[in-house]
Amino acid sequence: MSELTDLYQDIKACQKCILSQGRTHAVPGEGPEDASIMFIGEGPGFHEDRQGRPFVGAAGKYLEELLESIDLKRQNVYITNVVKCRPPGNRDPQPDEIDACRPYLDKQIDLIRPRLVVTLGRFSMQRYFPGASISRIHGQPKRVGNMIYYPMFHPAAALHQPRWRSLVEEDILKIPELLAKLDDIEEAEPELPQAQQLSLF
To answer: What is the C-alpha to C-alpha distance for residues 33 and 112, in angstroms, rounded to an integer?
Structure first.
């Protein structure tokens, strides 16, 4: 078994926060262990909790359509969430729940080593773009250390608020060019993380 498979077993047995008490299934994530792109959402919803897979509801179907627009399939990318168990009633994940799952997400990034991490929604964005507003920084990549982070609105937000849909679709279309230009993105200054959004377009 791979280290990633071992990690999945740890996540499925996790009891670190209250979310574990109400889950049907933990949702570790899925995708190739050598994926070039990792998408990080917020947390599992109803369908994800039932199936143990990320992004299998309406937002997942829309994400697959977005991937197809840049000639990618779901199986080409790695998909996970900030928290691995469904928050009750699909409420926002709480800080202690995010913190409890943080080591799992760190390990996934470390093992997969994607060239690009796409954050979907404000809870996955906040960790890498502290203090920033998603409506202001979406579609603007930033290097932190040896990793490139690219914030986007969550697909569910585009489904619920049509005004975001065109922005999501514009941002996804930038990814192929971004991958081609990764080496040109300068490293962000660590003392001013939210001031170093770098647009390539």
So the answer is: 5
Measured distance CA(141)–CA(152) in Å, rounded:
10
Name the band, by pLDDT with cuts 50, 70 and 90, for residue 183. Answer: low
CA Rg, the chain, in Å?
Answer: 16
Q: Determine the average pLDDT of the residues in 173-180.
A: 93
Burial of residue 126, with CB atoms counted within 10 A of its CB: 0-12 exposed, 13-18 middle, 19 or more buried: middle
The b-or-e profile of 80-109 (16+ CB within 10 A means b, else e) is bbbbbbbbeeeeebeeebbebbeebbebbb
In this predicted structure, the answer to whether residue 125 has a pLDDT above a threshold of 80 is yes
Which DSSP state fits 116?
E
The C-alpha atoms of residue 27 and residue 91 are separated, in whole angstroms, by 16
Supply the angle between the helices 3-12 and 95-112 in degrees, to the nearest 10.
Answer: 160
Contact between 118 and 152 under an 8 Å Cβ cutoff? The reply is: yes
Helix (H, G, I), strand (E, B) or coil at 74: helix
Q: What one-letter code names the amino acid at 141?
A: P
Q: How many CB atoms lie within 10 A of CB 144?
A: 16
Q: What are the strands of the beta sheet with 142-144, ordered from one edge?
A: 78-81, 37-41, 116-120, 147-152, 142-144
Query: Cβ distance 140 to 175 under 8 Å?
Result: no
